[in-house]
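[09:14] KT: can someone run the structure on this one? pasting the chain below
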Amino acid sequence: MLQTISTFSSVRMLGGLAVVAITLLPSAAVADSDRAPLQFFNGKTEMVSTIKVMMKKPFRSRAIGTGRILSDGSLSLAQQVLDEGEPARQRNWKIRQIASGHYAGTMTEAVGPVTVEEVDGKYRFKYKMKGNLAVEQWMTPLAGGNAAKSTVTVRKFGMKVASSTGIIKKV
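[09:31] RB: done, structure tokens below
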């Protein structure tokens, strides 16, 4: 609680963080195409979510992504993040597969690496953010392979300080 103001600023960055998580759709969810899991973000995507920060009014966030698969097979994703009441900002991701069901990468607002693991057809992202924030995000692919549900929990010193729920879709 001591740093609620700085935590609020850091948590505002969550708007759209979940967008990259859908890149890891399991093959069953993309059965209608020959795309590999990281291919979902090759092109345009959009996420709309609601972010709730402890002791603050919930706000809407929208992230518009443009992704491409690099020659090494990794995903490069640039996002324009539009949080309600804030100026637009740019966020960049790079994600690669490191083993079956395991991915790793970087994101401009993360402190250190982003790790991802497949768990029963869902994907769990873990990373740290400025202000001692620990982020855990679960992505659940939806039928048809063109969308997924994102649920994010942010903790500071083990206490939940923010959460987000949203849907991301291929545009």
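[09:33] KT: thanks! Confidence is low (pLDDT under 50) at residues 1-8, 16-35.
[09:34] RB: yep, looked fine to me
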